[in-house]
Every structure is written in C-alpha cells, then in structure tokens.
Design a protein that fits this description.
This protein has 334 residues and is of the alpha+beta class. Helix content is 18%, strand content 37%. The strands form eight sheets. It has a five-stranded antiparallel beta sheet with strand order 6-5-4-1-7, with no helix packed on it. A four-stranded antiparallel beta sheet has the order 16-24-23-17. Strands 11-8-15 form a three-stranded antiparallel beta sheet, with no helix packed on it.
Length: 334
C-alpha cells in the first residue's frame, strides 16, 4: 500500500507531458519490434533504404552480406542488418533459410503434392532437360494432379505426364500423418550422357550415396548430417572419379562427382516440410542445370547439408536413382 501511494505521489510530481513522452517512447519501441523470419544474403551491391516511399539511404550493402529478413514483399523486403532496420528490393535477396519453417516457408521453393508410380515406361522432358525414359515402377514426385495430367518440376522448367501414366498417391498432411504415411518428397532428373565422358561413374556415385541414406530414421529433435552418412568422398570410401562443379563456370573431375544431385534432391524434399535447415551451401551463383537457381545444395570437404527433425515424430528417408529419376521420399517412420 505504501509503495502504491509513493508511486502516485511520484507521478503527480512529474512535469507536464513527461509521462506521455515516456509512453510515446515505449510505443515507438513496440512499433519498431521486428521478427526475424529468414536469413538471406545480398545478391549484389545495393542500398538499404529507410522507407520504400523515399530515397533516404541508410547504408550500403556489399554482395554476400548476411542479413535477417523480417518481411518479404513482391518488390520490397524489410531486413535487419548491423543494428538497422530498412528495406531492399526483394530481387536482391537470395539463399533464404527459414528460422521457423512451419510459419515461414522458404520463398520460391517447389512444393510437391504427391507421387506417381509409373504403370509402364514414360518419356520425361521439360525445361532445358533433353529427356530420359523412366521405366515401369518408377516413383516420380508431382507438383499437381489436374483433370488432364500430372505436372512435374523438371530441371528449371516443368513437364507433364498423362493421367494414365501411373497411379497417383497424395502426400499425407504432416500434422495428421500416421506411422508409415508418406509426407513429402522430391525428384530431380539426369540423362544418360549427363556428366560425360564419366557419366557411368557419376551414376555409380549417386547410387552408392542413395544406399547410404536410404531408410535412415531421424528422431524428433535430432540433427542429420548428409556428410555424416556419405562422406568422405574418396576412393577409399568407395567412390569413383566423375564430373564435379568447379569455380564460377567450370567443372573438374573428382571422387564422388554426382553425389551433390542427391543432396540437392534431399534439400528440396526437406523444404516441402517444416524441417529446420541448419546448414547448406550452393555450388556457385549460376547454380546447376537440374534445379532452379539458389536451390542446389553442395556437399564436400567444406560444405554440408544439415537439418533438424522439428516434427513431433520420427521420419524415415527413401532414396533411389531409378535410372535417372532420382527421388527422395520422406515418411513418418513406423
């Protein structure tokens, strides 16, 4: 009671407007409170603006500057960097990593709706992909099943399959999935000559790495490292020499060439679910042919794909190259 009386006396003695000024300051702080939704990187040198409606420059941001993204808009995004909150053009932000994938999925990701198990052989084409023939029994992830066909994500474009190509099964919603249910997946493609003249070795490496992650179970709250299961990429670990991505534009030959297509396929399967990506790195700015730019995931001595199972149940991986239709599926573990 004495403390309350003292407080009331103190307020009465404050100069006129002092309380309202303090209140306004508190309100201003509340208004500037932001939630970091993503980590991203600046694509090229750009300007941090105070507002999208004026040209007031707050800072200059160099290429590859790491920023926190608070809101993503079609043209402008609000970011936090170096204790400042401002705006940059959305097309200047790349390599998004969500800090809460359930609430804030990664912008631009491809989300599949289910799989088709082919009832016979089928030609797969789309985008700049030269094409490959998938055999009977091949499991292919599809973005959408329409009244006339199945829509596929193929390289940096899209393709279709007729409805009679196979049997469709929709992914189970992860929140209501039961043990054994299929909840997500992704397919990337390669043709017979991809990685020539060592294309056979490339397929061998992909197949070997698939065997090393196939049927792996990740418990709730546990982290998974792709390198922890597939590295080192050496002849002593069973890999053969094949084409690797090297530098901004080139290629080289090294042990384990091709394995990054599997890590990339797994990464994109992860993005379709609220799983927390802890670490990933792209090969280079221009990316790779078989996936949209900024959605490849390089693995090697200096890069890894790591994620945490943030679902309330264990998940199980399924991986199979299937003659060029490389598919990774994610199940709720039994």
């Amino acid at each position: 009671m004495k403390r309350l009386i003292a407080l009331l006396l103190l307020l009465a003695l404050l100069p006129a407007g002092a309380f309202s000024a303090a209140q306004a300051k508190t309100t201003a702080k509340a208004k500037t409170h932001v939630v970091h939704k993503y980590i991203a990187f600046i694509l090229e040198d750009t300007i941090l603006r105070k507002s999208i409606n004026d040209n007031v420059r707050m800072d200059s941001l160099k290429k590859n500057t790491k920023v926190y993204v608070n809101n993503v808009g079609e043209k402008w995004s609000q970011i936090s960097v170096r204790n400042q909150v401002g705006y940059v053009r959305t097309n200047k932000l790349v390599r998004f990593r969500s800090l809460n994938p359930e609430k804030y999925p990664v912008p631009g990701r491809t989300v599949n709706a289910g799989i088709v198990t082919l009832g016979g052989s089928a030609k797969i084409t789309g985008g700049i992909f030269p094409g490959m023939t998938a055999e009977k029994g091949t499991m292919i992830c599809v973005k959408k099943a329409t009244k006339t066909n199945y829509e596929l994500a193929v390289w940096r474009g899209s393709g279709t399959l007729v409805l009679t190509a196979g049997e469709y099964k929709a992914f189970a919603p992860w929140k209501t999935a039961k043990p054994g249910d299929l909840i997500g997946g992704f397919t990337t493609y390669y043709h017979k000559k991809y990685g020539a003249p060592l294309e056979a070795n490339r397929v061998y490496n992909i197949t070997l790495a698939c065997k090393r992650i196939h049927n792996d179970v990740i418990q709730p709250g546990k982290s998974y490292s792709f390198n922890g299961h597939c590295a080192p990429y050496s002849d002593g670990h069973g890999y053969k020499k094949a084409q690797n991505i090297s530098g901004p534009t080139g290629t080289s030959v090294g042990f384990g060439g091709g394995v990054c297509q599997l890590s990339t396929t797994l990464y994109n399967a992860i993005l379709g679910l609220p799983l927390q990506v802890d670490e990933m790195m792209v090969h280079r700015e221009r990316g790779v042919k078989y996936i949209p730019q900024w959605f490849d995931s390089a693995v090697g001595p200096y890069s890894d794909l790591k994620f945490t199972n943030t679902l309330p149940y264990p998940i199980q991986l399924w991986a199979n190259p299937q003659g060029g239709a490389l598919t990774v599926l994610i199940y709720r573990a039994k």
